Amino acid sequence: MRILILGGGIASISLAKFIQQKKQIKQITILEKEEKVGGLLRSYEINKIFYDVGPHIIFSKNKKILKLILNILGKNKNSLKRSNKIIYDKNTLIKYPFENELYKLPKKDLQFALNKFLKNKFSKIAPKTMKDFFLKNFGEGIFKLYLGPYNNKIWKMNPSKLDTQMVERIPRPPNEDIIKSAKGIITEGYKHQLYFHYPKKGGIESLFTAFKSKLNSKVKILTSTKLMSIKTKNKKYLIKTNKGIFNYDKIFSTIPLNEFYKYLEKNDKIKKISRSLQYNSIIIAMFNIKGNIAGKNFALMVPNKNIIFHRISKLDFLGKNYSLKGSTTFQIEITFKKNSKIGKMNNQQLFNRIYEGLKKLNFVNKKKDINFKSIKKFKYAYVIYNLNHRKNVDMLLNYYEKKGFDFLGRWGSWEYLNSDQVIAQAYEKARKFLI
Length: 435
Ligand SMILES: Cc1cc2nc3c(=O)[nH]c(=O)nc-3n(C[C@H](O)[C@H](O)[C@H](O)COP(=O)(O)OP(=O)(O)OC[C@H]3O[C@@H](n4cnc5c(N)ncnc54)[C@H](O)[C@@H]3O)c2cc1C
Hints:
- Helix content is about 30%, strand content about 25%.
- It has helices at about 10-20, 65-75, 105-120, 130-155, 175-185, 205-210, 270-275, 345-360, 390-400, 420-430, and strands spanning about 1-5, 25-30, 45, 50, 80, 85-90, 90-95, 195-200, 220, 225-235, 235-240, 245-250, 250-255, 280-290, 300, 310-315, 325-335, 370-385, 405.
- The chain contains ten helices and 19 strands.
- Bound molecules: flavin-adenine dinucleotide.
- Flavin-adenine dinucleotide binds next to α1, β18 and α10.
């Protein structure tokens, strides 16, 4: 059997690793359009500091997968404990998750958050949207003060237009914890991601490279390869690319599901559904600033709608290889939609808005305190769970799977999956394939 895997991110590399031992498989080809494989697990370097497409921490609820990841990383890892804050205003940093440090809020806001949590008029509703879910589980106060503004900012959409798939696993905090948090008694709250790992050096790409090093000689990687069309003939797939025409017995796809229709025979209905799938893109900015800023924190959430970025991460927190003496390195994230005002800004305009935001937060005073900076844009960052997501994605997957294609990965299956979940999905696909 000759297998083709479209796309060269961690979904593809891990699937290849999991199926390469099967005797029936003669060759596995990974086809990647970029010059380099890695997808969202690539890291970039600026003045010897490696950074990711948004800091990629390593954690998993799936113990087996976490063990596998950590084994593959070998010695190249640090273990860390979460130290994340919400920048409520420039004088108020609230420990993440928000509901576990309510006493830091101004008195009026604290009363609002607490009363609406304890006497919640939404407690009996059956949530259909993300907004309903937050109102039911956290009350109107916490929703209006933090969850609403922050989610509006990251999704660039009102949470009443998003479904509950992403949030439904978040547990409702117990009343005792919220009462304690209002009194100033600290509880840890949501423990998922409390402890995590990160490569000692090289950024998250070193995890990808470690996985890739486990591939055997059956696996061939074609980079800078443009897929042009896929045709089916006598139960084989005929693939036309800028590097020639090839034959395969099976295709797995990890490339964005919304673009897959382009390579097959024309079908207007499928095209229309594909084009209705929504995603957010992301701007990743790196700012190295003089001085030690923002304490011993890692991620700082910024719900303020007048500041362009929604999250800043202090990379120094990740270990000495991510830190430069006498300075602080911030990674700054801004989501955007195609053709939006932010999406159309050039780097100078983005720089000005980021600088303005950092100044509002007292993280910088003058432009000459910025030692160096970089700004990059990435098209596919977040799957959007709009109210038609489940119906449309299932319809596309059913249609393609009947034709024998198999989909996986964050974009292939069009789900909000972290890399551990993508690896787990590849493991499952491999297990079911050729049993
Ligand atoms: C801001 C941000 C923060 C994140 N933080 C974390 C985190 O803390 N921890 C964590 O575990 N995960 C995190 N993730 C998620 C993680 O990045 C993904 O789960 C994972 O990288 C997805 O891998 P993939 O292979 O499915 O997709 P990708 O990495 O997107 O790979 C798809 C590949 O397909 C290629 N491709 C696309 N179109 C074509 C085409 N037509 N032909 C050929 N090739 C094509 C792309 O170039 C790419 O290489 C984060 C993601 C983002 C955006």
